[in-house]
C-alpha cells in the first residue's frame, strides 16, 4: 500500500493520538451556497475548456494542441480504507456485504451536510476574505522557482466528447439526481450500482451535466464515500474545472486538499482552478495565496499558473500588480507568451488606457512574441463599447500593415458581433457589406446578430428587411433569428404580429423552441396577459415543447405582478414538480407580494412549502417574513420564526435582528430589544448603519438615553460608526430632549469635522425654536473653541434673539468671534447688529 507525501505525517499523528484516527479516516463535504443569476433570453455555455471563462477576446487560451492526458497516476488504486465502524455494519463489510445496501445511512446520503475535516496544519492565513493585497502576496512564490529544472508546459484539461454526455448511464444517473428530493433506499441503491459501472470520463460527464454546480459537488462527495469506489484523478480535475466557473471557492479548496489526502498528483492546473474560483468570489487575497499553497506542496509554477495569476489580477482591476508579476516572471526565467500579453492588454482596456494597450501591441514583436488577432480584437471591443467607431477602422489597417494579419471570416464576424453587442447596428451592417464585397460568405450567425441588434433598438422594419435579404441570398433564417424578431415584436408591444411570427416559423420549416415560446410568454406577461401565458404553457405538450426554469419564472412573475398570488404559487409547485427550483430571489419576490397584501400566514406557509420541497430558501426569505409580521404588529410570530431559523440551521443576520429590534422598540419593549441586540453581538454579527439608526431612533423615542449609551459602547466595540453620537444628538433634538443632547455634545466635538458642525447647527436651531438663544450662543462658542466655524446666517439669528432679550454683550461677542477669524469685515459688525 502506497501513500502520498502528505499522508505519512498525518498517520504518525494518528498513531500518537488514536482518538483522532477517525478524523484522518473520515472525509465529508458540504458545498457553499451561492446565488446564480440567469438571463431570461440568453444562453449560458455550460462547459468551458479553460478554468476561467474568458470572453471572446481571450480565445487564445484554448489551444488545439493542448489536451488532457488521461493517464492515471501510479498507485492511485491503493488507498487507506476510510470508513468508521458503525456497530455491526463493519462486520457485514468484512463478510462481503455492502454497507449501503442495508439501508441509507447518514454517511451515504447524497444530500448529507458533511464537511471535510480540516487539520490545523492545513489552515492558511487570510481566510477572512479581506480584499487588501500586500505587494508580496503571490510574488514570493516565484523567488523559489528552480531555473535549472525543465518545465513541462503540457496542460491538463478535461474535455468530454458529446457522445459521452449522451451515454445511457450518464443520462440515467442525471435522472436519478434530479429525483434527489424524493430519494429512498431503492433509488440510492440503483445509483450506487450504476456508479460502479461508470468509467472515469463518464463520471466527469455526470459532473459537467449538472446545471447547479452545488449539486455536482454533492454528487462528487457522495460518490467518494461509496464502498469499493474511488475517484480517478481525472474526476478531481473535472470537479475543480466545474467549480472554477462558480464562487464555490471553499468547495474547490476542499477538493484540492482531498487530492493531497488521496495521494493524487496535484499539477499547477489544479491550483489554477481554485485560484479562479476565489477570484470569482471576490477574494483576491485568498486567490493569490493559492500560489503559496502550491509552493508549500512542492509544486513548481509554470507559465499556465502564472497566466492565471495575471488574469486574476487583471479581472480584479489590479493592473499595476499584474505588471509587477509579469516582471517577476521574466526575472526568474518564465517567458511570457501571447496569452500573458493579451491579459495585460485587457487590463489596460479595463482601466481605459487604450493608448497603453496599443503601445504594448507595438512592443510585442520586439519581445519575441508578435500579437495575434485576439490582441487586436480586445482593443476593438473596447473601442466599440465606447462608440469610437472611426478608430476601429484605423486599428484594422494597423493589424494588416504592422502585424501582417489579414482579416478573415473570423475577424469580420468578431467585429460584427462587437458592434452589435453595443447597438451599432448600422456600422455592423456596413462591415457585413464590406466582407461580402471581399468575397467572404456571411453566415446565419452574423445576420442573426445584426437582426437582434436592430430588434433591441426597436427598428423592426430594418430587422424584417434583413430577414428577407437572408431568404434572397439563400441563407435561411434559423430559430435564433426568428426568436430575435419575435422578442423584438414583444418589446414594442406588437403581440399579434408576434403570434403570427410564431406560426410563420412552422410554415418555413423552423420549429420554435423553448426560448421562442418563452419570449412570447414574456411579452404577454409584460402586457398584462399572464393568464393567456399560463394557458399557453399548459398546452406546451400539445405544441411539442417543454417549459424550462426561465419559462416558469416568467409566468410566475407575470401572475405575481397582476396580484394573482395563488396562481403564481401553483406555478411554483408545478415548477418544482418538474425538477426546476426557484431561486431565493424569486421566492422572496412572492413573499414580499404576500406581505404587501397583509397575508402573512400565506407568506409563511409558502416559504415553508418551498423549504420542505428542497428549494434554496435563505436567510433573506426568513427576514422578509419576519419583517412582515413586525409590520403587522405580530411580534410573537416574528420571534417564534427567529427561533425556528436556528432549529433548521438558517442563521439570522444583522438585518433579521434589526427588523425585530425596531419592532420591539416601536412597542416600547426596550428591555427585550436590548437583550436581542446583545444576542446579535454575542453571535459575532456586526451592526450595520441601519442597525445604528434603528437602535438610536427607538431608544431616543422612549427616552432611554443612559441605556442607549451603554448599548452603543458595545456596538462600537464590534463595528465602529463615526456618526453614532451625531445621530443621537440630532434624534434627541427632534424629540425635544435638548438637555440630554447638550450633555453629549462634548463626545461630538472631539473631532472637528463638517458632520460635527452640522450636528451643532441642528442643536442651535432647536434652541432657537424653543426660544433659548443663550444656549444656542453657548453651542456656537464651543464650536469656536474647537476651531469649528458656525454658520454665519444662523449666528445672525442668534445675535438678533440675544439683542431682543437684552443681552448685547453676548451678541457683540458672537459677531466679534467671526471678525477675529477673518470671516467678517469689522465694518459689517454694526450693520449686522442693527439689521
Write the layout of secondary structure elements.
Layout: H1 7-16, H2 21-25, H3 89-94, H4 140-143, H5 162-165, H6 168-178, H7 185-197, H8 200-209, H9 213-224, H10 233-243, H11 249-262, H12 268-280, H13 284-296, H14 303-315, H15 319-331, H16 338-350, H17 354-363, H18 373-385, H19 389-401, H20 409-421, H21 425-437, H22 444-457, H23 460-472, H24 479-491, H25 495-507, H26 514-526, H27 530-538, H28 549-561, H29 565-577, H30 584-596, H31 600-612, H32 619-632, H33 635-647, H34 654-666, H35 670-682, H36 689-701, H37 705-718, H38 724-734, H39 738-743, H40 745-748, H41 754-769, H42 773-785, H43 792-804, H44 808-820, H45 829-833
Molecular structure report:
InterPro entries: Ankyrin_rpt-contain_sf (IPR036770), PPR-containing_protein (IPR050667), PPR_rpt (IPR002885), TPR-like_helical_dom_sf (IPR011990). This is Pentacotripeptide-repeat region of PRORP domain-containing protein. It holds the Pfam family PPR_3. Belongs to the PPR family. P subfamily. With 835 residues, the chain is mainly alpha-helical. It has 45 helices and no strands. The radius of gyration is 33 Å and the shape is globular. The relative contact order is 0.04.
Rg (C-alpha, Å): 33 Å
User: What amount of the residues lies in strands?
Assistant: under 5%
Low confidence ranges: 1-108, 113-130, 148-155, 829-835
| Shape summary | globular
Overall residue-averaged pLDDT value: 79
Distance between the termini: 100 Å
Q: Estimate the helix proportion, in percent.
A: 55-70%
Work out the number of β strands.
0
Amino acid at each position: 500500500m502506497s501513500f502520498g507525501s502528505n499522508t505519512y505525517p498525518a498517520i504518525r499523528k494518528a498513531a500518537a493520538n488514536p482518538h483522532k484516527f477517525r478524523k484522518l479516516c473520515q472525509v465529508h463535504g458540504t458545498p457553499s451556497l451561492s446565488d446564480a443569476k440567469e438571463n431570461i433570453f440568453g444562453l449560458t455555455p455550460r462547459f468551458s475548456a479553460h478554468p476561467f471563462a474568458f470572453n471572446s477576446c481571450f480565445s487564445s487560451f484554448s489551444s488545439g494542441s493542448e489536451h488532457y492526458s488521461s493517464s492515471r497516476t501510479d498507485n492511485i488504486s491503493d488507498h487507506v480504507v476510510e470508513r468508521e465502524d458503525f456497530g455491526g455494519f463493519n462486520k457485514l463489510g468484512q463478510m462481503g456485504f455492502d454497507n449501503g445496501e442495508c439501508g441509507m445511512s447518514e454517511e451515504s446520503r447524497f444530500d448529507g451536510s458533511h464537511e471535510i475535516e480540516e487539520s490545523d496544519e492545513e489552515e492558511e492565513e487570510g481566510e477572512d476574505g479581506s480584499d487588501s493585497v500586500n505587494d508580496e502576496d503571490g510574488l514570493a512564490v516565484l523567488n523559489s522557482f528552480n531555473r535549472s529544472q525543465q518545465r513541462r508546459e503540457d496542460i491538463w484539461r478535461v474535455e468530454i466528447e458529446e457522445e459521452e454526455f449522451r451515454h445511457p448511464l450518464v443520462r440515467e444517473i442525471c435522472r436519478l439526481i434530479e429525483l434527489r428530493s424524493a430519494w429512498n433506499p431503492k433509488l440510492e441503491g440503483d445509483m450506487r450500482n450504476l456508479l460502479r459501472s461508470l468509467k472515469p470520463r463518464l463520471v466527469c460527464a455526470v459532473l459537467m451535466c449538472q446545471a447547479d454546480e452545488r449539486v455536482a459537488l454533492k454528487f462528487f462527495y457522495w460518490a467518494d464515500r461509496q464502498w469499493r469506489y474511488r475517484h480517478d484523478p481525472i474526476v478531481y480535475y473535472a470537479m475543480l474545472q466545474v467549480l472554477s466557473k462558480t464562487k464555490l471557492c471553499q468547495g474547490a479548496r476542499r477538493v484540492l486538499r482531498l487530492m493531497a489526502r488521496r495521494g493524487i498528483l496535484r499539477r499547477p492546473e489544479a491550483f489554477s482552478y481554485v485560484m479562479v474560483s476565489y477570484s470569482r468570489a471576490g477574494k483576491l487575497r485568498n486567490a493569490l495565496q493559492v500560489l503559496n499553497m502550491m509552493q508549500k506542496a512542492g509544486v513548481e509554477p509554470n507559465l499556465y499558473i502564472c497566466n492565471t495569476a495575471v488574469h486574476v489580477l487583471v479581472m480584479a482591476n489590479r493592473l499595476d500588480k499584474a505588471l509587477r508579476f509579469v516582471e517577476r516572471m521574466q526575472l526568474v526565467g518564465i517567458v511570457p507568451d501571447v496569452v500573458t500579453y493579451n491579459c495585460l492588454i485587457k487590463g489596460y482596456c479595463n482601466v481605459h488606457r487604450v493608448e497603453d494597450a496599443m503601445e504594448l501591441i507595438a512592443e510585442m514583436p520586439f519581445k519575441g512574441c508578435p500579437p495575434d488577432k485576439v490582441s487586436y480584437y480586445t482593443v476593438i471591443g473596447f473601442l466599440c463599447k465606447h462608440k469610437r467607431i472611426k478608430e476601429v477602422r484605423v486599428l484594422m489597417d494597423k493589424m494588416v500593415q504592422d502585424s501582417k494579419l489579414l482579416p478573415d471570416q473570423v475577424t469580420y464576424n468578431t467585429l460584427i458581433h462587437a458592434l452589435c453587442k453595443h447597438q451599432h447596428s448600422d456600422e455592423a451592417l456596413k462591415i457585413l457589406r464590406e466582407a461580402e464585397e471581399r468575397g467572404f460568405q456571411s453566415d446565419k450567425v452574423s445576420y442573426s446578430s445584426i437582426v437582434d441588434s436592430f430588434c433591441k433598438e426597436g427598428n423592426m422594419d430594418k430587422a424584417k428587411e434583413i430577414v428577407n435579404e437572408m431568404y434572397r441570398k439563400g441563407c435561411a433564417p434559423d430559430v435564433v433569428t426568428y426568436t430575435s424578431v419575435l422578442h423584438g415584436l414583444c418589446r414594442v408591444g406588437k403581440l399579434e404580429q408576434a403570434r403570427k411570427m410564431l406560426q410563420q416559423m412552422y410554415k418555413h420549416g423552423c420549429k420554435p423552441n423553448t426560448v421562442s415560446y418563452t419570449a412570447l410568454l414574456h411579452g404577454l406577461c409584460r402586457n398584462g396577459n399572464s393568464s393567456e401565458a399560463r394557458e399557453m404553457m399548459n398546452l406546451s405538450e400539445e405544441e411539442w415543447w417543454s417549459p424550462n426554469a426561465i419559462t416558469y419564472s416568467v409566468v410566475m412573475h407575470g401572475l405575481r405582478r397582476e396580484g394573482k398570488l395563488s396562481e403564481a404559487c401553483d406555478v411554483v409547485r408545478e415548477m418544482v414538480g418538474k425538477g426546476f427550483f426557484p431561486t431565493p430571489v424569486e421566492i422572496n419576490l412572492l413573499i414580499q407580494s404576500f406581505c404587501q397584501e397583509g397575508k402573512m400566514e400565506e407568506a409563511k406557509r409558502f416559504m415553508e412549502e418551498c423549504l420542505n420541497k428542497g428549494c434554496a430558501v435563505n436567510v433573506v426569505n426568513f427576514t422578509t417574513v419576519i419583517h412582515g409580521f413586525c409590520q403587522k404588529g405580530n411580534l410573537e410570530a416574528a420571534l417564534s420564526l427567529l427561533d425556528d431559523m436556528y432549529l433548521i440551521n438558517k442563521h439570522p443576520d444583522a438585518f433579521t435582528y434589526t427588523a425585530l429590534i425596531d419592532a420591539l422598540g416601536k412597542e416600547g419593549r426596550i428591555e427585550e430589544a436590548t437583550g436581542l441586540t446583545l444576542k446579535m453581538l454575542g453571535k459575532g454579527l456586526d451592526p450595520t448603519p441601519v442597525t445604528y439608526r434603528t437602535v438610536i431612533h427607538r431608544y431616543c423615542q422612549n427616552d432611554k438615553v443612559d441605556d442607549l449609551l451603554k448599548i452603543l459602547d458595545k456596538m462600537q466595540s464590534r463595528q465602529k460608526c463615526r456618526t453614532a453620537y451625531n445621530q443621537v444628538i440630532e434624534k434627541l433634538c427632534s424629540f425635544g430632549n435638548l438637555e440630554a443632547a447638550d450633555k453629549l455634545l462634548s463626545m461630538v466635538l472631539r473631532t472637528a469635522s463638517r458632520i460635527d458642525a452640522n450636528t451643532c447647527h441642528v442643536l442651535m436651531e432647536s434652541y432657537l425654536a424653543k426660544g433659548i438663544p443663550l444656549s444656542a450662543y453657548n453651542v456656537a462658542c464651543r464650536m469656536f473653541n474647537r476651531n469649528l466655524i458656525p454658520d454665519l446666517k444662523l449666528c445672525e439669528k442668534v445675535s438678533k434673539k440675544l439683542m431682543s432679550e437684552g443681552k448685547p454683550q453676548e451678541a457683540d461677542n458672537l459677531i466679534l468671534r467671526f471678525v477675529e477669524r477673518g470671516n467678517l469685515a469689522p465694518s459689517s459688525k454694526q450693520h449686522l447688529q442693527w439689521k
